[in-house]
């Protein structure tokens, strides 16, 4: 068919190794870093395993709220959902688009909501009871400022956050968001997070302070992962002390 | 120089883009006949509707049969089915939901958004149908593009990346144009997707920033969600040096872009069967190529939830003549939306006349305005107009001038609600649309 033919033709083009140039806020301003297709594939695989750990499987449905400039992690989440054969609805993460989030949630009844922002919750709270809306959703992966709002409303939200050029995803243990140790080195300095690229990344990134208040837990998590976990001040205290 | 590029490899899929009309028609007929069979067998909405109209696929053997027998559908009909049955897809879905890849939606600026069910492999359908247009604009492997403002019809990046472009992650939404200009200077992208409010914001920056220099790396920029006025377009092209490509919706089956000729929006007719008609009291008729009619669209490349003879409410002029670019696919020129016309005590007022009056005032040159009405027929013309506070000394004096200008253009004295442009643009509830007609 037409679109499939277009993409088949596109595959004949010489595609560069790079998929993205990721810009991220660091303590001393915006930085950028290259992201190759090979890295994107590895990142997608990691996200797939993390979402599988939340019980996501074929036959379930997801709602993703994200923005146009978040493709470097949005791409991996979408790739993971596709790998898991979980169809997703998509809405903006910006607060003014909360109505679409509400309609998607009401009509598609997603098993997992990914990327909820505090701005979306603020918009929703004008016409809905946040707790009632999301308590029955099996998995809610929310951005840092949204996590305490959701937990305060009785929703067992898990944290997800960009940590510089990396994505951090909390597991069901909810004791900090995991960062892929095979790709990144995360640490803390004076109560703030730092990140460096792992050996396998094409773009070098020396230890970079991110200006994000938080700390890092190492050691094996109860979920079985040895990936370090970041605990962000903005997301409030973890709901579990297990590790 | 704007538009001055090598045209040696102008077509991405030359055989398709320049296909002779008779071959294109044969292809459409083949797809329509398959579609009718498929939709009847799999969509409860179409089966119910066509049964009511005594239409069965066995009776549809040609495009003529299709046009003569298959009934039109409207957004309201799908909404009614959705309300009656609770099916979020309005009965259009032809596959089990678990077979879907994703669900995007309309902007929902006039009610609950409608869902678009999607099945795809490498890139979502909307942006995939734009690949030919992006190639025409000049995008090539290795070029850089700035990420688009939103994800309203799914993540767009895979479409750009299919062409070998590298996406630079920059927040390009309202209020971030300073950062965008910095990113343009740093990364020298070849393409940027823009929306009307960003243009308004750039207009404010133009006094302080050399936009022509900042945009000089662009092969082109696209703009959608709102037609650009002639003045705005000239400003973007002549003062900022951007070859701007407008695009619009192809009746929710995809998008229709300008080519480098900038003379109408190309519909990709291997993905959509387009009709331009006038619905009358007892039937319908085709309109002449030079006349305005309503765009009716049929999806030819959508096995998830195809629209079939969908009345878009878009008033267009449609031409199937070969374009100066050499493509044979039809072009359309959009005049507005059916229903955007307002009757003020019986007098017809159209958006374009108001727009011209608004643009003629220096303080409101960006053309940020809305008609506020509960119904199409009203007793008074209520306008909400956004002004640039830096250019406006006396808002009352501006309102006086503007009121006279609108009266002169439309014959109606408006009731004006003056706001700053920023206030008005901040009421937007979509990355894609700034609504020109609002209820409150």
UniProtKB/TrEMBL annotation, chain A:
This is AMP-dependent synthetase/ligase domain-containing protein. It comes from the Bacteria.
Automatic annotation (TrEMBL), chain B:
InterPro entries: ANL_N_sf. Keywords: Ligase. It comes from the Bacteria. GO terms for molecular function: ligase activity. The keyword Ligase applies. The keyword ATP-binding does not apply. This is Phenylacetate--CoA ligase family protein.
């Amino acid at each position: 068919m037409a679109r499939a033919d277009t993409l088949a033709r596109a595959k004949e083009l010489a595609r560069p190794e790079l998929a993205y140039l990721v810009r991220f806020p660091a303590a001393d301003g915006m930085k950028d870093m290259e992201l190759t297709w090979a890295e994107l594939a590895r990142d997608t695989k990691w996200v797939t395993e993390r979402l599988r750990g939340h019980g996501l499987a074929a036959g379930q449905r997801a709602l993703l709220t994200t923005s146009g400039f978040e493709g470097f992690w949005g791409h991996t989440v979408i790739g993971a959902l596709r790998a898991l054969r979980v169809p997703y609805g998509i809405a903006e993460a910006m607060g003014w688009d909360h109505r679409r989030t509400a309609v998607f949630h009401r009509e598609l009844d997603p098993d997992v909501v990914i990327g909820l922002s505090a701005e979306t919750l603020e918009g929703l709270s004008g016409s809905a009871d946040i707790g009632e809306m999301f308590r029955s959703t099996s998995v809610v992966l929310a951005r840092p400022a949204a996590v305490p709002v959701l937990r305060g409303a009785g929703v067992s939200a898990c944290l997800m956050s960009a940590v510089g050029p990396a994505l951090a995803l909390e597991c069901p243990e909810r004791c900090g968001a995991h960062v892929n140790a095979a790709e990144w080195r995360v640490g803390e300095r004076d109560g703030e997070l730092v990140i460096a690229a792992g050996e396998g990344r094409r773009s070098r990134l020396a230890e970079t302070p991110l200006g994000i208040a938080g700390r890092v837990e190492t050691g094996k998590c109860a979920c079985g992962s040895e990936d370090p976990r970041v605990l962000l001040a903005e997301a409030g205290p973890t709901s579990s002390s297990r590790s | 120089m704007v538009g001055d590029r090598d045209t040696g490899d102008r077509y991405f899929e030359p055989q398709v883009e320049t296909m002779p009309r008779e071959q294109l028609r044969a292809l459409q007929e083949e797809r329509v006949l398959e579609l009718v069979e498929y939709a009847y067998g799999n969509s409860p909405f179409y089966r119910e509707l066509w049964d009511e109209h005594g239409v069965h696929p066995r009776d549809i053997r040609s495009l003529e049969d299709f046009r003569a027998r298959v009934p039109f559908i409207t957004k309201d009909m799908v909404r009614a089915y959705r309300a009656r049955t609770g099916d979020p897809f309005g009965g259009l879905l032809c596959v089990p939901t678990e077979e879907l890849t994703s669900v995007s939606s309309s902007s929902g600026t006039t009610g609950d958004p409608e869902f678009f069910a999607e099945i795809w492999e490498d890139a979502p359908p909307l942006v995939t149908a734009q690949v030919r247009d992006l190639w025409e604009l000049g995008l090539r492997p290795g070029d850089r593009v700035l990420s688009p403002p939103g994800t309203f019809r799914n993540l767009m990046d895979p479409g750009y990346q299919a062409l070998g472009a590298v996406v630079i992650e920059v927040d390009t939404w309202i209020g971030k144009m300073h950062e965008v200009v910095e990113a343009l200077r740093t990364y020298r992208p070849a393409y940027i997707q823009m929306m009307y409010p960003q243009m308004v914001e750039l207009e404010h920056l133009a006094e302080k920033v050399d936009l022509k220099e900042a945009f000089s790396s662009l092969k082109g920029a696209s703009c959608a969600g709102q037609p650009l006025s002639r003045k705005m377009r000239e400003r973007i092209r002549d003062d900022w040096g951007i070859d701007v490509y407008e695009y619009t919706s192809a009746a929710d089956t995809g998008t229709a872009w300008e080519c480098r000729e900038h003379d109408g929006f190309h519909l990709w007719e291997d993905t959509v069967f387009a009709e331009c008609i006038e619905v009358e009291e007892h039937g319908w008729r085709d309109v002449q190529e030079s006349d305005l009619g309503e765009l009716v669209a049929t999806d030819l490349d959508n096995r998830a939830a195809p629209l079939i003879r969908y009345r878009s409410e878009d008033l267009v002029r449609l031409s199937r003549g070969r374009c100066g670019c050499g493509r044979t696919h039809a072009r359309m020129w959009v005049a507005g939306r059916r229903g955007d016309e307002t009757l003020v005590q019986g007098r017809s007022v159209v958006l374009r006349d108001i727009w011209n009056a608004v643009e003629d005032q220096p303080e409101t040159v960006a053309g940020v305005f809305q008609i506020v009405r509960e119904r199409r027929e009203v007793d008074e013309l209520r306008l909400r107009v956004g002004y640039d506070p830096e250019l406006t000394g006396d808002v009352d004096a501006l309102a006086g001038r503007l009121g006279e200008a609108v009266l002169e253009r439309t014959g109606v004295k408006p009731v004006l609600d003056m706001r700053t442009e920023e206030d008005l643009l901040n009421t937007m509830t979509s990355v894609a649309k700034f609504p020109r007609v609002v209820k409150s």
